[in-house]
Amino acid sequence: MRATSLALIAILSTAGACTAASDTPTFRPITGYLSADYFTLASQESDPSSAVSYQIVTHYVPAAGSKWTFDLNLRSRHHLDGLRRSTRYVYDAKAAYRTDSVGAVVGRMSVYDIGSIGTFDGGRVDLPLGSWVVGGFGGYVPDLQTAAFSSDSQTFGGYATRTFQNGSRSDMAFAELRRFGQTERRWVSVQNFLYVKPGTSLYQSAEYELGNGIPAGNRLARFLASGSAALTGRASVSGSFSFGRAIDYQRIALAGSAGEVITDPGIVGAFYYENATVSMRYRVTPSWRILGGFALFRRSQSGVLVRQVRMGVSGEALAGISFSGNYARSFDDSGGRGVLSVTASRSFGDLSVDVSYSNYGDAIALVETGTVLQPTLVPGYRIVELTGAYRLTNGLSVVAEVQRASGADSKYTTFFLRSSYRIR
């Protein structure tokens, strides 16, 4: 099986090379890319494992100026050791028809441009109204395990989008998820992208729950705000704040149908994560930059607030070698850990080579022992990685990567090979 899989990667490379040789500047009805990956892991703690993945992403336009388009996004992963189930997933298999006055899509589609709607089999309609677009969608949610069509769950909703002359955009969507004829989740999502000036922009997204059984103070289930700004011609700053709540929609819906009320915070909206970051970059010379940053993280499993300081430098060294070095130090109530990473890159025409080294220092972490969190030593480890990428023709490339990790508790080696062809 392994020999067959590697042969398929070679066939993809050969086919791509032959196709790319006949590229012409004329109208091309099909764009997209094809890729085949091979991955293997050898570890001292477990038996070797390997897998082959394939991906096909295509966009087809029957003729220049056609109102019809067709999209396919297919991914497949096969575990060669036979210990885990292979997966095949169709993210998109849809046909779209668009004019100046209406847009319609039918098939399987993954909708994230108006919010985290997800993947469903059904339809979507857009109605342009000047700077506004209003529309609706609905369909069946595929089986989460097999990705096969399923009529057990349905999703539907509506949305409105406004695009401004300076490139800013605002989206608002209402969505409902029903499972076995019962409402499991009902929510509103809002997204805003604000373009202020060149180098300065803001982004915000949020999801607000409308369903029953969720306390009012927990209805803002997810929130993200981020921004970046160019302070001068040399300096820029960026920052973000986000949080997400742990909400078990299915258990809440089942309890509601039985006339019960769940009060467990881990089910009805306790914080699952909270993050805040700020960083700054400064261009010292045309080719060298330095950066620094600070971050706060909290996860609900431990409730521990982690503080992290980051600093780094990047630029072009001698003989065309690009260099980057970064150091991050994390602190919490029990101790901390430092992580040092260094990368050197060099291009030789169509071939590029990257060599990197990372050192994860020893850490004291809070580990759950029974019902008590105990400070525990987590030994450090080191990772050395070598990556080579070669562009065979226009659109066709091969990437190979070898990674070796070693530490007191773990040693493993991975090998990754990808052959991909971009259709254009």
What does this structure look like?
This protein is mainly β and 424 residues long. The protein has a single domain (45-364), classed as Porin. The protein is 8% helix and 66% strand. It contains three helices and 24 strands. It has a 22-stranded antiparallel barrel. It has a two-stranded antiparallel sheet with strand order 20-21. A hairpin with a 2-residue loop joins strand 9 and strand 10. It is globular, with a radius of gyration of 25 Å. The two termini are 32 Å apart. The model is unreliable at 3-8 and 13-23 (pLDDT under 50).
Descriptive tags:
about 425 residues, mainly beta, Porin, 22-stranded antiparallel barrel, about 10% helix
Topology summary:
Elements: H1 2-20, E1 30-43, E2 49-60, E3 68-79, E4 87-98, E5 103-111, E6 118-129, E7 132-140, E8 153-163, E9 169-179, E10 182-197, E11 200-209, E12 220-230, E13 235-247, H2 249-257, H3 265-268, E14 269-285, E15 288-299, E16 305-316, E17 322-332, E18 335-348, E19 351-360, E20 363-369, E21 372-378, E22 381-393, E23 396-407, E24 411-423
Antiparallel strand pairs: 1-2, 1-24, 2-3, 3-4, 4-5, 5-6, 6-7, 7-8, 8-9, 9-10, 10-11, 11-12, 12-13, 13-14, 14-15, 15-16, 16-17, 17-18, 18-19, 19-22, 20-21, 22-23, 23-24
